[in-house]
Amino acid sequence: MTAWFTVLASGSAGNASLLQSDGFGVLVDFGLGPRVLAARLAARGLSWRNVNSVLLTHTHSDHWNEATLTYLHRLRITLFCHPSHGDDLARQSRAFVAHHSAGLVRSYEPGREALLGNDLRLWALPVSHDAGATFGVRVEGGKSLFGPTWAIGYAADLGCWDAELVAALTDVDFLALEFNHDEQMQLTSGRPVTLIRRVLSDEGHLSNRQAGDLLRAVLKGARRDAIRHVVPLHLSQQCNRPHLARTAAEGAIADCGANSEVSLSSAAAPTPTFAIGPDACKTGYCRGGKKSRSPSNSNGSLSPLAHARSTRNPAAGNSTPPRVP
């Protein structure tokens, strides 16, 4: 079975991505208004009808939006968040209070598997960021006799990384990772000193250098063909340049002899829709494969993580792109 991932927006102006598997869609963060999100979805032949649940990684304002939360309540779409996110949102958001009262909020905890729907399994990965509880995510899906057939990793806001995060991201098929800034550009940006110190701190954002080092560590522990796609996230408009982030990512890939393709995200437009899973090359959107039509035009605790990685069968599964109304 093939899954599909689209970064709808990534940056300080708003963050949102859509994961689809077997007709079930999970919106990862919702930092844009509902009309803007609708336009980003439409640009990929999708709509709000393709969103079945929503996952919140942390409560900074570029990752959630009050008007969108009101719209989620209207559509009765389930929201997954950490309990501390609920505490924060209950103080800030009338829409969240209404959503929670309607029984449409589910919680997740690090170290425990959470079911997002349609057999999609979430592992929340704690990361260091100045937003209270903040998480990267690993989502696994597909079924075979040997366990899940694909996995994605996503970490949009973090100031540093450790061996546990590396282990959790190893052998994912798709990795979206923050490449926020160039360190020299940050230091000479003319920004307030307090802001520069915040961004460069262990609770700030990953630089291109730090993200490249994290990517190297992940790739060194992975199968050579494991990570087909790497998408740098959250590029600073003031303190980064797309070619710098790409160079850092491609340098890490080359150093490890990996076969990953780099595609940059943007605050202004969605990425292509990436096919993920053992049959991804058959559907296109993979390195060395002929790009076929996208799904929008078709009809169609870390020890369990280690176990899943060791037992995942890369040859299992059949793919059907999600049907778009």
Strand and helix map with partners:
Layout: E1 3-9, E2 16-21, E3 24-28, H1 34-42, E4 53-55, H2 66-75, E5 78-81, H3 83-92, H4 94-101, E6 105-107, E7 114-117, E8 120-126, E9 135-141, E10 150-155, H5 163-169, E11 174-178, H6 183-187, H7 193-200, H8 208-220, E12 229-233, H9 242-255, E13 261-262, E14 274-276, H10 280-283, H11 302-311
Summarize the structure.
The protein is built from eleven helices and 14 strands. It is α/β, with parallel strands linked by helices and 325 residues long. It has a single domain, classed as Ribonuclease Z/Hydroxyacylglutathione hydrolase-like (Metallo-beta-lactamase, Chain A).
Descriptive tags:
alpha/beta, seven-stranded mixed β-sheet
Report on the structure:
- With 325 residues, the protein is of the alpha/beta class.
- The protein has a single domain, classed as 4-Layer Sandwich (Metallo-beta-lactamase, Chain A), CATH 3.60.15.
- It has helices at residues 34-42, 66-75, 83-92, 94-101, 163-169, 183-187, 193-200, 208-220, 242-255, 280-283, 302-311; strands at 3-9, 16-21, 24-28, 53-55, 78-81, 105-107, 114-117, 120-126, 135-141, 150-155, 174-178, 229-233, 261-262, 274-276.
- The strands form two sheets. It has a seven-stranded mixed beta sheet. The chain has a seven-stranded mixed beta sheet with strand order 7-8-9-10-11-12-13.
- The longest helix is centred in the last third of the chain and has 14 residues, at 242-255.
- It is globular.
- 52% of the residues are buried.
